[in-house]
Design brief:
Elements (H helix, E strand, L loop, with lengths): L22 E5 L20 E6 L11 E4 L6 H13 L4 E4 L5 H10 L7 E3 L4 E3 L1 H11 L10 H16 L2 H6 L17 H19 L12 H15 L6 H11 L2 H12 L11
Parallel strand pairs: 3-4
Antiparallel strand pairs: 1-2, 3-5, 5-6
Helix pairs in contact: 1-3, 1-7, 4-7
The structure holds glutathione.
The site of glutathione (GSH) has 12 residues, from helix 1 and helix 3.
Length: 278
């Protein structure tokens, strides 16, 4: 069992976000169109934020902790963070800046893989963005993080895993950089093929499975969390898709949680030269 780092604060406030501890509580209600795969009990309205507060002291002690890296650069952190936020999971975030001495000291302690994201639920640590989101989907099914229908869920898992293990050329040539606008850059070998495949995925999901809402499978799912950093990259490097894909990208970028992530990234002062495309 990993040590309970939630209670320990030797790292100090500087290790965390500029706003300190952020606690986010949302009653996620799903506003789905009447849909054969959605029972009445699950047809609630989507992402209604009813409470957001900063809690201090004892009130936050039992919250799970999500360890993340720099918001400007850490695409895997964004996947887990956005999934938890849109799903309405209450958590405390702890940001440890990548490639710093602080990182070298802490990462092996908070995560078995020494990578972010890592999620400590008070008893155990879960790592890998997809592993964390799968855990929330399993342990809190009301979050509706996967489509209900088994067949549709299988497709959602397939596209999520395609993202988890694929698109290496795009990921290395177009590192996530929320602060920058670099249209036309990042076109390394193999990137065009990745862009085309991602465009196909967005179009296929939206047209076949997206009728119940604006996301890949209608309501927000893990698949959207997995592709959110790709949308961010396409914004940074000026990648345009077909009208269906472009509308989907607008939906992701307009999410209030996505905007909050961007606003925090804009205030970060760390610069990782190796991640900066010139
Ligand atoms: N497959 C992992 C990837 C995690 C990952 O590579 N995270 C990066 C930050 S975006 C990291 O921790 N890098 C630090 C390092 O490699 O030392 C996941 O899905 O979470």
């Amino acid at each position: 069992m990993m040590p309970d780092l939630t209670a320990a604060t030797p790292w100090g406030q500087n290790a965390f976000t500029s706003s300190g501890v952020i606690v986010h509580v949302v009653l996620r209600k799903l506003a789905l169109e009447p849909n054969a795969q959605t029972p009445d009990s699950m047809r609630r309205c989507h992402s209604v934020r009813v409470h957001r507060a900063k809690l201090k002291g004892p009130a936050m002690q039992n919250l799970p902790v999500l360890y993340i890296g720099n918001k400007n650069y850490s695409s895997w952190s964004l996947r887990a963070w956005l999934g938890l936020r849109v799903a309405g999971v209450a958590f405390e975030e702890k940001l440890v800046p990548l490639r710093t001495e602080e990182w070298a000291a802490k990462a092996p302690v908070f995560s078995p893989s020494a990578k972010v994201p890592a999620f400590f639920d008070g008893q155990k640590t879960i790592w890998e963005a997809l592993g964390i989101l799968e855990y929330i989907a399993d342990s809190q099914p009301d979050t509706m993080l996967w489509p209900l229908d088994v067949d549709v869920r299988a497709i959602a898992r397939s596209v999520s895993l395609e993202m988890h293990g694929g698109f290496g050329p795009l990921r290395s040539s177009m590192p996530m950089n929320c602060r920058k606008s670099l249209p036309g850059l990042g076109r390394g070998p193999g990137v065009e093929k990745d862009i085309n495949r991602i465009g196909e995925i967005f179009k296929m999901c939206r047209t076949r499975y997206g009728q119940g809402g604006d996301f890949l499978f209608g309501h927000f799912s893990i698949a959207d969390a997995m592709y959110a950093p790709v949308v961010s990259r396409f914004k940074t490097y000026g990648v345009s898709l077909d009208p269906v894909g472009n509308a989907y990208m607008e939906t992701i970028l307009a999410l209030p949680d996505m905007k909050e992530w961007y606003a925090a990234a804009a205030t970060e002062e760390w610069v990782i030269e190796a991640e900066e495309v010139k």
